[in-house]
Amino acid sequence: MLSKMATSCISDLTFNFLYLITIYILHMSIAANNPTLTSWVNVPANSDFPIQNLPFGIFKTHQLTPRVGVRIGDHVLDLKTLYVLGYMENLSFELSDFDNEFLNPLMKKGKKATRELRNRISKLLRADQDDLQKNEHHVAQVLISADQIEMCMPVQIGDYTDFYSSKEHATNVGVMFRDPANALLPNWLWIPVGYHGRASSVILSGQSIYRPKGQIKPADDQDPIFSASRQLDFELEMAFITYDGKPLGDSISTGEAEDYIFGMCLFNDWSARDIQKWEYVPLGPFLAKNFASSISAWIVTLDALEPFKVETPSQNPEVLSYLKFEGLKSYDINLEVVIEPENSEETTISRSNFKYMYWNMAQQLAHHTVNGCNVRCGDLMGSGTISGPTEDSYGSMLELAWKGTKPLKMNDGSERKFILDNDTVIMRGYSSKDGVRVGFGEVAAKILPAK
Ligand code: CA
Questions:
Q1: Ligand 1 mean position to 301 CA, how many Å?
Q2: Domains of the chain from N-terminus onward
Q3: Which H/E stretch holds residue 387?
C-alpha cells in the first residue's frame, strides 16, 4: 500500500516537473521580440513590419509557385528557398511545409515549432548576424521586393465562428433595434455569444465583392421584396487562427487558450443590415452575413503581439468558473476604418482599439470548447464588431451613421449612410510600444454593383 502511494507520489512529481518544464519552454521570453533588435534589411520608419513582427503569409510571383513567406519592411522572405539553401536545419519543418499554398502544414507543427521558426528567421535577419547577410547570392534569391509579389489566401479555413463580444457594439444594436432600457439581452454578460459562420466565402483582402441580393422588408407594414441590399455595411473585427485543438469531447481552458492560437489578422465581416433585420429571428445571421468576409494577408503571430498585452475591461457580474482567467488577456491594437469612394481620396470614419473587447480570445476559445466541441488547425474565429466608447470609434456604419439618421460626410463632399457601389472600405491596425510598431497592414475590398 505504502509503496503504491510512494510510486504514485513520484509519478505525480514527475508529471508536475514535466508540466512545469513545458510551460516554461512555451512561455520563456521570446528572443524575436527584443525591442532593441535591428535588421540588415532596410525597414522604413513607421513600417508595420519591423524585425519584431515577422508575420507569415502565402505569396507567389510570375516565376514562383505559391509558398510561405515572412514579411520584413518592404520585402518578403521566401521560406521555401531558405529551406532549400539549408538555413532551416534543426527545426521541425520539412520542405513541403513551406512549399505549400496554405500555412496549415506549418501551423500543424504547433506553438513550440512555429516559435522556434520565428526565432530562427529573426536571427537570420538580425543586423549583428551575417550567416545569411554575407551570402549576397543567397540574399538575392530569398529576399523579394513586396511590389513584385502577389499575396494569396494564407490559410485553408476549416470552420469559421463569429463572436459578438464588444459590449459597446451589442449595446448600440440593442438600443437601435430593441429597447434602450434593456439593450443587452439577458445572456450577453454571461456568455461570449457567437454563431457558426461560413468558411467558403472568407476571401483575401483586395478581392472585390458584388452587392448581395435577398429578401428585404422596406417597411414594417409591407410584405418583403427581393432586392439588392440597400444597407450594405462593414464590421470592423479582428480574427484569430487556431492550431490543432483537443479531441472531440475535451475542452481548452482559458489558461491553455494561447497555446492553441497561431496568430491574428484584420477581419471585415461584411453585413447586409436590411437582409439581416428580416431573416435573423429565430436562428440568427444567415444570408446577411455569408456573402463575404475579408481577411488581411499577413498573419501576425500571437507571439509577436505578446509585448502589447493589456488588461481587459472589468466583468460584472462575475463570470462562471470556466470563463475566469489570470493575467493580461487583451492586446492594445489601434484600428481604423476608411472609405475610399471611386476616384476620390480616403476619409477616415472610425478609430477603435481591440482592447475594448469585453470577452477576450481566451474566454471565447474556452467557451467554444467547454461542451467538448473540437477546433482544428486553420479554424478562424472572428472577434465580433469592435466598437469603442465614443461615437467616432464605432465599428460599423449602422452605428456610425446611427441607422442612417446621421449620415457621415466624406472628404469629397458626398455623404454615406451605408456603403455605396464602387466604394472601397479599408481597415488598418497596429500596436506600438517602446519604439516598436507591430502592424497588420490592411484589409481592403471594393463593392461592385449587384450582379
Ligand atoms: Ca460579425
A1: 22
A2: 37-152 (2.30.30.230), 160-448 (3.90.850.10)
A3: none
